[in-house]
Amino acid sequence: MYSLITFLFVVPVLISLLLLVVPKSLARPLVITTALLLSAISVYLFINSEGVYYFGVPAYVNDMVAVADIILLIFFGWIAIKRRSWIVGLMSLLQLGGLLYLLNTMPAHHSLQFMVDKLSLFMFLLINIISGIIAVYSLRYIDEEHCSPFRKKYFLSTIFWFIAVMNLVVSSNNLEYFFLFFELTTLASFLLIGFRKDEISVKNSLTALWMNQIGGLAILAAIFFIHHNGYGEATFSNLLANAKAETILLPLALLSIAALIKGAQMPFSKWLLGAMVAPTPVSALLHSSTMVKIAPFIILRLSPALKDTPVANVIMALTGFVFIAAAIGALSQDNFKRILAHSTIALLALMIMMAAVGTPVTITASLILVLFHGISKSMLFLNAGILEKVFHLKQSSDMDKLGESGPFTALVITIGFMSLLLPPFGAFIGKWVSIESLGTLATDKKILGALIMVAVAAGGAVLSLLYFKVMGLLIARTGNEDKIHFEKTGPFYAITTYLLLGLLLSTVVGLPLLLNNYFTPVATQISGTPVALVTEGWTMYLGAVKLPLLPMIIAFLLLPVTIVVAMFVRFKNVDRAKEYMCGEKVNYSFSSFYFSTDRATPYFAAAGVLFFVALIMVALI
Amino acid sequence: MNNLWVPIILIILAPLLGGLVYGFERIIKARMQRRIGPPLLQPFYDFLKLADKRKMIVHSAHAFLGIMHFVSLWFALAVLLLGGDLILVIFLHLLSTALLILAAYSTRSIFSHLGANRTAISILAYEPVLIIIAVSIFMLTGSFDAAAAFQSEQPLLYKMPLAFIALLLVLPIKLKKSPFDVAEAHQELTGGVELEFSGIFYEAVYTAKWIDYVFCYALVYLFAGNNILLGTGLIVCTFFYLNALDNSTARVSYKQMLRFSLTVSFSLAFINLLLNSLT
Lengths: 621, 279
Fold this sequence. Notes:
The complex is a heterodimer. Chain A is mainly alpha-helical. In chain A, about 70% of the residues lie in helices and about 5% in strands. Chain A is built from 25 helices and 6 strands. In chain A, the strands form 2 sheets. Chain A has a 3-stranded antiparallel sheet with strand order 3-4-5. Chain A has a two-stranded antiparallel ribbon with strand order 1-2. In chain A, helix 6 (about 150-170) packs antiparallel against helix 7 and helix 18 (about 405-420) runs antiparallel to helix 24. Chain A is globular, with a radius of gyration of 24 Å. Chain A starts with a helix and ends with a helix. The mean pLDDT of chain A is about 80. By secondary structure, chain B is mainly alpha-helical. Chain B is globular and about 60 Å long. The mean pLDDT of chain B is about 85. Chains A and B meet through helix 19, helix 20, helix 23, helix 24 and strand 6 of A and strand 1, helix 3, helix 4, helix 5 and helix 12 of B. Strand 6 of chain A pairs parallel with strand 1 (about 55) of chain B, so a sheet runs across the interface.
């Protein structure tokens, strides 16, 4: 077991280094086999794991981590000087100062630095499978990018680097190690966002850098306060062991801030929106399986300690606000990837909220959302890349001819949106459980519960409107042609799309099984209380939440199947008519409605800042 | 088992009932304008006439989505009347409307598109209010099930008067009545989303509107708990209120509608929710 887990850390690093030197012909089989291998290992680990694995590394690694930290921060400082960014410089200096202080004052480590529990294994599955698929897709995508051959290799190499670091992040127990890996994901995203090296890429990558550096700073501060308040070593297990102490709230709040920044919650949503300038596989990585998923991971990890604290209440209020604000913000977007990004922020808010509520059922909801959002978003982003490279489309308003020029891609994107929205797809079940379980919360925290429920439900309605707006463009056709010819996009694009599609559909079919064997055991381990999953006739009970299966199955047949069938159905023996134009001959550009919500954005950001201040305040009091 | 038969019969007869409501509505509206108006069964005569028309469609996907709009709306109504989960009901209703919007977007018709945009905005105007009502009902009965509201001993109206007013303010949007009939607005959009349907395919969209009547009045009935008399009274009052309003007001623009709904109706329902969660 231990060797397999270390395998997950070491192999991607080695591959990442190898990819820098091997020629293109060798890179392809190498990437594909590694992706398969990593996925296979993570599945094997998840199935065969028992209990929690703690393991340590020799003492000299501690020194290596410290040195790596310092080198990394000096590198950030160098970037600040090179790009003349005072804010990155300031953050790097603060972090460096904090780190050196901590290194000098901190006692020696005794406990084990790594901890792999069911949550880590759950994350391994998401990280390795989805990122593996994205890596295979990138083989083709990056071929079409205009850059030097070395930079193409470097791109693939960075992706595997990212996978390795992500695997490390979700397994670290020691916060100092966690800090290093957290910063390394920041570095990886910085490099990937700035990959295209044009002015806007550089600017946005710097934004991503300094915002995430604040997160790193928050972790350092958390480590400091854990020592200062006398809880001994700064580890996750130690934090959870002291969960009921009062002064533990401050480190918890600081770690939550790190999480919220990684999760691009307002006012820090700018970095994720800016990340759109990077090549599309990067967006797919950042949104689905890596980077932003650190946010729900941290909160899930801390949820037993956070549960029922004022910090958790503020997090719930903040994420409830972000959920609806991001949904409203998305309505004004036209760029396809920006629409996806807004919906990511909204759904992340929901995942974080559910994790912060911390009951076994809400933790299950959070896990469901984490997984299914990962699958759906990676599929959507990869197809956004296909739109860009094959059909040369970026704006959603230009997509109204896709139904005829690229029906297969249109179909896949439609299914992707439906999987975020409609029953019985996992994301719907996740949202459903969220709303229903907030009800149980509302009995003891009535006003907060009611407010959040309204935010979630209304935000959900706005999001569905948004998805339908895009789907409306995808389904548009002239009616001149009756036959559908599926387009060919090339093996790499096609295979990755089929894989994700297959994954999506098989998870829908196997959802009851997955709930039982996959989600509830993880939730049980996190929360320490077993999650009851009972099926009575046509109703399934997850804790106190009722899942009426019959209406959901019928709804599935009615809605998603209808929309897919609508693309293929043909009525015979019916005459065709042209649209009614009221006798006018105008060139009408077909576009959808927009709400200019840009004016509201500064207010959203300001409100976000207030929430962050409140987060610290409640922890101090 | 007596209790189960009533909703089932209601569900099966829903299109018929809705058609009668529509026919009656046309008479009442005519009388308010000192006209005699059409016979009560006029909607059904229209129905028969439409079935006889030449079959014409823009393309198959469009016609098919129209039919499925009708089917899914009927299903949403069935879930509501059988006492299903209110959030699911609202969601299904939203999605059935969304199918109609999708249908309208799928054509290249200007008026359809405008109508679809406006229908989407209408959803944005009434949906939050409905959701708050569902959450308030949850606060009072401890369950999202409509059955809990239908069986409640004390009518919900007494606990949620403001929410009921809010419902009355958003119903004209849902039923496309003046002053909030921007989505249909015959003089401007010649019917909006419905425009490109014709003949037998229009039938589905036409009867879907009847089902929407039943759906809306069922929502009104939710407020009466198990008090049948009060429920009937509420429905009759709402019926006259809607027609009087439709007859006496002029259409507002969609911006005014959205602003009114999100400030006045939403706030009313929200205040009610806060009051409910305080006690």
